[in-house]
Amino acid sequence: MGFTSMSESEEKVVPESERAKELKAFIDTKAGVKGLVDAGIAKIPRIFYHPLDNFKKASDLGCTEYIIPVIDLDNIHQDSSARKRVVERVRDASEALGFFQVINHGIPVSSLNEMKNGVLRFFEQDSEVKKEFYTRDKEPFEYSSNFKLYNSPTTWKDSFFCNLAPNAPKPQEIPSVCRDILVEYSNQVMKLGTLLFELLSEALGLNPTHLIDIGCTEGLFSLSHYYPPCPEPELTLGTMKHADIDFITVLLQDHIGGLQVLHQDMWIDLPPLPGALVVNIGDYLQLISNDKFKSPQHRVLANYIGPRVSVACFFSTGVHPSQRIYGPIKELLSEENPAKYRETSISDFVLHYNKNYMNGTSPLLHFRI
Fold it and tell me: Could you tell me which residues come within 8 angstroms of residue 206 by beta carbon, excluding any fewer than 6 positions away?
């Protein structure tokens, strides 16, 4: 297929001209990373190499006190004291780690399992059928591998994107193997998101509907990822280190694991919990909360055993950027806590992010006062 693998002694930096050729060869197959695995490769192509970072795993350093909180949402509609406890835990997790898991969230386990199965069905169907949905243009449903291939490092996964709100795709625009469950699951996540934004509003000391009223639930899109088994997982990543450009993300992951959160210069494992959903704070919410809530960097490791599947639902109007202006919420500001960010629109935030994707720094720095 025109790819080059490397021995341990070879230089791991691919010249730009060679990288462009290898990327084109990879894209032209329309078979994604799974196509490489199906071809039986024993060594990964050079375009997938990632340099090691300087951060250690917390578990390797003997730091066992860092655990991603698991928050039980059961009975919070009937029991005010239970709701108060949940709000306190959401506040603590959002301030400290920016990540937590939720259980008893209202989405049936059967729906979670069927959503994961729908992702597997799509990626494991005949490659010729799957290629019909392969595109690098912005479509309501878009199957690709590494959406930003030419301006970011290549990672060991294939994905499909689906815009869910405010402009949902027509049913015929979604592949039949995952159509029904994707529509059903997105409706359930939207309901859960409404509840989460109520809890986050209360955690900020605001009216329960504050974040909803300012448009945090107006946009929703999903990325469903398929991480095939990797013959050399130590040389690459499933998802590179990043923070989410949204208000919050609701993540469904399978049993394999590999998700890590960067906290105090250490990587903290976020092990899968059956029936749970992962929630994390995004950059927009860090901005409007004036750094009260943190948008943490995270990544996904490649693995030998795969395939790993996950479904990330992003509450953001970034796909249909709104001109609504956002800045630190006025009710949170005081002389002791002045605004740390200037106001911006989602459009400008996304534009800046896309132009500076490779610089490795948070877009939030650009908007700091």
Answer: 329, 331, 332
3-state helix, strand and coil shares in percent for the chain, rounded to the nearest 5: 35, 20, 45
What whole-number distance in Å separates Cα of residue 103 and Cα of residue 71?
6
Q: Is 346 left (phi over 0), alpha (psi -120 to 50) or beta?
A: alpha
Q: Running DSSP on this structure, what letter comes out for residue 368?
A: B
Strand partners, 71: 102
Largest Cα–Cα separation, the chain: 63
The tens digit of pLDDT for each residue in 297-346 reads 999 999 999 899 999 999 998 777 677 999 999 999 999 999 999 999 99
- CB–CB of 91/62 below 8 Å? no
DSSP 8-class letter at 2: -
Q: What token pair was written down for 204?
A: 């900020």
Q: What is the CA radius of gyration of the chain?
A: 21
Task: Report how far residue 42's alpha carbon sits from residue 45's, in angstroms, rounded to the nearest whole number.
Answer: 10
